[in-house]
Design goal:
The chain is mainly alpha-helical. Helix content is 45%, strand content 5%. The longest helix has 19 residues. The chain is elongated.
Amino acid sequence: MDKVMDKLKNTKILGAIGLGLLLLGTFLPYIVIEIFGIKDSESLVGYWEGKVMLLVTFANLLFVFKDFIKKYVPQLFNSGMGRAIENAKPIFSLIPTGIALLLNIYLFTTLDSSLFSFGIGFYMIVVGIIVMIAYAFIYKEPTADAVASTPSPEAVANPSAGVAPTPTPMDQPVAAPAPVQEPTPVAAPTEPVTPVAPEATPAQEPTPIVAPTEPAQEPAPAPVAEPAPAPVEQPVQPADPNIGDQNINNQ
């Protein structure tokens, strides 16, 4: 009994069973009508009650398998409602389960059971609601420390796989003997190489030294002839009119 309870606490088997019952109860006959020996059945799928039941079942699916769904459809948890479901505890799955319970009570009280009988779909929904309520209270979500300490399936299948066996003297391999190194042969001395005298480079003839030439003397400038002084004109004295008259008289 303790193993069964541990299984229910640590796995989501109750949630999977409850979801399956709710889904099947929505598609299977919810009521069975018998008139004059002719039986007919109706499910909730064709009515608004069936659409609400499917929506509630999908919401429960997100609460139960949110980790698995996030791996393949992560965009469902990008909205505010999606993040709230992602961080919600298992007890919050009672919200959609309570809606399914109220819807089933509403159908049970409003339908006239004198004309028909409830079918297998009704009873599967009732059992599914009970299982989902049990899941919300029994299942314990593992903490981060519990996840880290949980052994892998390989370790559970082979407990000695994770522990290295202690080697015994018989199991220890015998070390191979070290290879014997052969002596390195000594090379025979080679004859000394006679150094080759470097070739004498031809002596270069000294470049003749050219005596410095005297700078060319510039020709002396030709003497500039001084201009001759201009002759001084003697003032011409006016002729004496009396001289003319004397010459005339002398003649």
